[in-house]
Amino acid sequence: MRDLPWHLSRPIAHRGLHGGPGGPPENSMAAFRRAAAHGVPFELDVQLTRDGALAVVHDAAVRLPSGRERPVTSLTLGELRAVASSVPGAAVPVTLPEVFAAVAGRVPVMVDVRRWGVAGAAGLERAVTTAVRGYDGPVAVQSFDPRTVYRLRRALPGVPVGQIAGALRSAPPVLRAVGRSMATNAVSRPGFLSFELDALPSPALRFWQRRGLPVIGWTVHSPEQERAARESVTNVFFSGYLPSAYA
Description:
Layout: H1 6-9, E1 12-13, H2 29-37, E2 42-48, E3 54-55, E4 61-63, E5 69-71, H3 77-85, H4 96-103, E6 109-113, H5 121-133, E7 139-143, H6 146-155, E8 161-165, H7 173-181, H8 185-188, E9 192-196, H9 203-210, E10 215-220, H10 223-229, E11 235-238
Parallel strand pairs: 1-11, 2-6, 6-7, 7-8, 8-9, 9-10, 10-11
Antiparallel strand pairs: 2-3, 4-5
Helix pairs in contact: 5-6
């Protein structure tokens, strides 16, 4: 395992090292600082706000105090932070450059590029490319969208770029079928796959594994789940416990 690159050899904290009694919320600066302090690589999600900031947010939309939902892409970073500040215990969104500055290369970072639809794709990919190129620490990127995988692989030579896949239950039927087969790998040529463990067994995943693509499974929540997952995948994203690799 020591001969493998970091994203295949070291369990990766899903959305930072969060949770536990009094622990920080996921995708928060506190969760990322906690991971760095423990020497743990971590994953985070990024989206582009209306004013061009790479905000670390997972969901496509946020709920306003009025109860209405607004897409992350329709809000400025300031508006997004104001909404989060009104929710007790919620993580106040930070930006990818702010995370990079705080971590400063101490641990590797996996950037999950979240694109919900067609609008803003080019701007999101350009912003991620600029941020990654300007960072000296170890980093990898991944996305559900094969177009984003293709473009980032071309824009970031030398950076591991992965395709995320799984059951894709919320996707439209046609996109779900294409995504589950991962047929676009033949064109986008990702360097690794991130695959939903609940979608195993998967003939499509075995097909790509036989062709040399390593797999990171998501998400394990206990040492027992980690041991079971490693029978099928090379590495794991974890949450809710600290793997023995970091004990």
